[in-house]
């Protein structure tokens, strides 16, 4: 390693923001090069001294109170600044009122809706199954084993079908809990990905469809209703494949 | 989440970083009153967009909003700050001044004066270098957090930091440096 390229990495090395390989290369160079050693030591001291000597401005005590007072008690109603409004804020008043409209609209959409909360629950349940290695209570690829297993455990009979020939073998089923009720969960596999399908009777309240799917933390979700049942599909498989799977599920006549 | 718990969560999570927010604003716009106004505005914005905070380092998230608010303020008040780039002629001379002062035996700097000088040197650094130094050396953010916050490549964070520190090094109290050599 040349001195120049080594020196370029000194800052990152000092801050421990350097890859292992680069770190080893620079350190090896430092062992052999006295000139670089001197520069490195100098930069090290300078860095420490800077961090110690530069002033860190503590917020004035009244600022916290000011902010607490200025925070809106209800969303998007108060955009005003309590203390003597500055001219630059006034100048942007038009922009601010426009923003207020955008923001109130934003708030409307930002409030975690029932669907979003449910989506969170669905993902959490799927992930919990994965990390506790407890995806199925009944492990079977036979729909005639899985379906009867739910008998007496649920107040409804979930449609269960195997889609092995379509590339989505059934792995098994388990009991789960969603929206304050016991639900049936079927687990399918597609290549190395596991897919959870949550099924429960549609209640009186309508759950908004998320036809295009939700993507959260790398998991994709689809939901729909069919024949009086709500369905939630969740997996890390890509969205297109998940949608294909949904088409298969909804088009196949359930084997009763 | 009810409005009450939302607000409570916001305050618990972000008010502890009030000084970090103020320190950044103060270093960027200099005046106490301006910095206070900006921090207040930034907190209101943060509250509005609180739902968009997806976990991670809430301090870095807040500082990003403070920085944006500062930039809006610059657009209103000090357009020129945004366009100032590093000028060897303009900023290089500070370097020489400092060295002359330090080598002059008549001038004995007290610790206080040295800090003042160093602070002044940082204040005079062009914005793009100043903010990297503040975010790293005072706020202790990771390079990656700074890169995301400023929307610049990781390598640029490193090179700006290196140049910023180099400029400031000239203003360090000389005996601090010597002392460190002996250790």
Query: How confident is the prediction overall: mean pLDDT of chain A?
Result: 81
- The CATH class name of the largest domain in chain B reads Mainly Alpha
The overall pLDDT average of chain B reads: 81
Number of helices of chain A: 10
What are the SSEs and their pairings?
The complex is a heterodimer of chains A (about 260) and B (about 180).
Chain A: H1 3-8, H2 10-14, H3 20-32, H4 34-53, H5 61-70, H6 87-91, H7 93-110, H8 114-131, E1 138-139, H9 143-149, E2 170-178, E3 181-190, E4 193-201, E5 214-216, E6 219-226, E7 229-235, H10 239-251
Antiparallel strand pairs in A: 1-2, 2-3, 3-4, 4-7, 5-6, 6-7
Helix pairs in contact in A: 3-4
Chain B: H1 3-14, H2 18-29, H3 32-48, H4 58-77, H5 79-83, H6 88-103, H7 111-124, H8 127-138, H9 143-150, H10 154-169, H11 174-182
Helix pairs in contact in B: 2-3, 2-4, 2-8, 3-4, 4-9, 8-10, 9-10
